Amino acid sequence: xxxxxxxxxxxxxxxxxxxxxxxxxxxxxxxxxxxxxxxxxxxxxxxxxxxxxxxxxxxxxxxxxxxxxxxxxxxxxxxxxxxxxxxxxxxxxxxxxxxxxxxxxxxxxxxxxxxxxxxxxxxxxxxxxxxxxxxxxxxxxxxxxxxxxxxxxxxxxxxxxxxxxxxxxxxxxxxxxxxxxxxxxxxxxxxxxxxxxxxxxxxxxxxxxxxxxxxxxxxxxxxxxxxxxxxxxxxxxxxxxxxxxxxxxxxxxxxxxxxxxxxxxxxxxxxxxxxxxxxxxxxxxxxxxxxxxxxxxxxxxxxxxxxxxxxxxxxxxxxxxxxxxxxxxxxxxxxxxxxxxxxxxxxxxxxxxxxxxxxxxxxxxxxxxxxxxxxxxxxxxxxxxxxxxxxxxxxxxxxxxxxxxxxxxxxxxxxxxxxxxxxxxxxxxxxxxxxxxxxxxxxxxxxxxxxxxxxxxxxxxxxxxxxxxxxxxxxxxxxxxxxxxxxxxxxxxxxxxxxxxxxxxxxxxxxxxxxxxxxxxxxxxxxxxxxxxxxxxxxxxxxxxxxxxxxxxxxxxxxxxxxxxxxxxxxxxxxxxxx
Amino acid sequence: xxxxxxxxxxxxxxxxxxxxxxxxxxxxxxxxxxxxxxxxxxxxxxxxxxxxxxxxxxxxxxxxxxxxxxxxxxxxxxxxxxxxxxxxxxxxxxxxxxxxxxxxxxxxxxxxxxxxxxxxxxxxxxxxxxxxxxxxxxxxxxxxxxxxxxxxxxxxxxxxxxxxxxxxxxxxxxxxxxxxx
Lengths: 579, 181
Fold this sequence. Notes:
The structure holds 2 protein chains of 2 kinds. By secondary structure, chain A is of the alpha+beta class.
């Protein structure tokens, strides 16, 4: 038994006697799950007791292991292999011997999970229980029942609960039904609706009490709140069957509220994804962020759809049980009317249909956002290709520039070698030491003639070198390229046109559309005596010629304008495109 | 309900909210979120400032569920203060797309502050404000809700997430459904 640690002095106003507590929740179960669940509990092997855990053996090669997780001690009470199982369970903390918190658990194929406990004692008091302390017992039972059932659920079910309860299913809320034989103060139910102490105390356990009702045909009374129902009756047995049905619908109600919250949260996440897409042109990481959101939401939507299926099946089955319920007892009838259970039963199915619509909308939205992401990614890819093409052109230009530099260096080398040659000549004949030449220069105006000869030679050599550089530059830029954006549909003659070509490169890009690139060489007269290489890019899905490039090696008397004109006329003449 | 029905607890609660939502000497400028206010109320209860009871309640905490010590009487008094037109309750969205609530003083609430006795103000200040006279900076973390004062280097755990145990003994009940027969 645990120790009292309450920090405050509690002022208790309401006391209950002879208490039975039922805690209800909905967990997605189907026939297969319940069969597996029964097998896991060893129901069919007459094994009465066992310790269960969600521990996963990650070291199969080792013979021993230590376990730090909480264990659930399970003892089978009753079961049907295909429909339900009922067992008593307790959580084993430090030692099994001192555990006195033992509750029964009922699980069926409809997803109805009810934990039941008869309260014997609180703080060594077994006569009457204050609501203040009862609230703490109930919150302890709610927490412990989550830990206990978690050890028994499949990984898939745990994942579903994780999704609906925002990653902390251990703190999930559940619906509490309390049956007590007496209440103190023994007043009319209505007098508990005082807006002060009594109501506040009831709110602790029922979470905002909305209905305070005295039965017309008996002394029974009940209090109904958002997360709990308190029934005061000397004959609680008559309510057992109804309680098992209320437990399902109100457990499901809490589950559906969380389910809807999660769904709206997913809608908002998709909205975030759209915002990222809008920033796609500015933020280079936006697409990745949007993709990450989309992938998370898509995975969640798949599970949300599966949950809908589970809920639908559960409600269909439980509606049959609701129809078969004996509603003749006037108190049962009154309780059903006061809690508007007929309405709740009918609306359970309607809420699932509504959820189906929202999930379908979510699926469509995901598909739309996915389309946007693809389109943006394609746009980015096109931009990348264009920039790659620009880079290649720039690198080509750099290559040419480098070639020109090489040419200049070659010329310098020639000039340098000429200078060396003159130096060698000077070394051989000396500085005007050639006697006949020196004599001739010295006589009359021959010096002027000599200056004239030297200047003429200088200009002749300079002109020669200039011509040589020009020639070499021309040699280094010996091709022309033209890109023509055609942007026209091609006719049926296109395939015949290609058949006559000797295609040397064919490239296919298969995405949403099929894009083909064909490359071939031509040297007809129409190209004015030049050899050309033509590359044509076409969208085969839409019969559309996107663009063409024409590359001319060693161009002779041809310009880029002429190249464009010749290609367009050529395609028209061959009736590949029309005007 | 009229202002004559204001209890000591309600007056202290109103003053507490007023102190935590003022800037300088100007009251009613800010709004205080529901969760920090719950922590202040709980801390006030265990330090005898508020004569309320509290009990564990599963509520949304940092976008997840968590059991916290919540005072239904405190919640009721907040509603009463709203009924009297002294408080506003505001709904705001969180980054993870859930909703939370916040409280702010109305003009009538600000006017009413003059009618609160200094004894009540001193009582609230003694435990729910730092010794230096400033309000605490309230930090909501996964590990709990803390009251800090950087000037005085104070860091107090509100203990609102510490759920108390009571000693109890229970036995399993046989649950009857149509399937069990």
